[in-house]
Amino acid sequence: MSEVTIRVATPDDLGVLSELIAASYAMLDNGAYEAARLAAALPIMSRANPNLLASGTYFVAEADGEPAACGGWARETPGTGEIEEGVTHIRHFATHPAHLRKGIARLLLDRCLREAAASSAHVIKSQSTLMAESFYAAAGFRRIRLMEAEMAPGISLPVVEMARDLP
Q1: CB–CB of 149/157 below 8 Å?
Q2: Hey, what domains does the chain have and what are their CATH numbers?
Q3: How many Å apart are CA 131 and CA 109, to the nearest integer?
Q4: Torsion (CA) 63, 88, 23, 108 in degrees, nearest 10
Q5: Which residue of 14, 60, 80, 123 has the fewest C-beta atoms within 10 A of its own C-beta?
């Protein structure tokens, strides 16, 4: 296995993480989503979020010094910005296709779970793509419901809202 390090993302990572996210999300085109809806959503959802990059709770996992995955957590609910006491949210996880099934995303998720628990949160939620539901389930998340995530006015995709308790 490659040497994997995890570091806090910065605004300077915008370009490289946008490329990583775009490569990862291009794999969503496997028939799980309606083609026209996915085509409309991909340009929006495939860009790194500058606010997340500046949050201090968004990370880059590097394999042998190269960005392999990214993701983080936040107190704010995606899409609304609302904060619910004791609840945190997994945010914008992506793994470059060359680094799938190497355990890198799980290392990144474990870091997020530890930090969210240390922040006094007792629950962490995720709005998972249909393809990533099994990844989160393997980490102890349970399905709450299927919902629509709005990317922009009139552009949405189905996602699986999931949650798990934190120690």
Answers
A1: yes
A2: 4-165 (3.40.630.30)
A3: 16
A4: 10
A5: 80
